[in-house]
Amino acid sequence: MAKVIAYSTTTCPYCVMAKNWLKEKKVEYDDINVGTDQEKAREMVKKSGQMGVPVIDVDGEIIIGFDRPKLEAALKKKKLLK
User: Which residue, among 64, 66, 40, has the nearest Cα to 52 in the 3D structure?
Assistant: First the structure.
């Protein structure tokens, strides 16, 4: 099954919006707080080339920021969203 990872911090309002949207759509995801996990923060930067959050990894497809149209398209492509 495809995997979704949300790289976020507790103080980022767009992270909260993205995670709430994923919950609303009943999409299972792993939430990684890059504010407290430096190893995961380096992993996020390596994947995305970005220091900013949120970064959402939809089974290898990287979405930077809470870009709802891109996120929705990636989830539909991986059959994680109807």
Answer: 64
What CA–CA distance (Å, rounded) separates 12 from 34?
A: 11
Does 82 map to a domain? no
Check which CATH number belongs to the domain holding 20 and give it.
Answer: 3.40.30.10
Q: How far apart are CA 38 and CA 61, in angstroms?
A: 22
Tell me, yes or no, whether 78 lies in a domain: no
The parent domain of residue 56 ranges over 4-66
Single-letter amino acid, residue 5 = I
Task: Please report, as a single letter, which amino acid is at residue 59.
Answer: D
pLDDT tens for 3-13 read 999 999 999 99
Rounded Cα gap, residues 79 and 70, in angstroms: 14
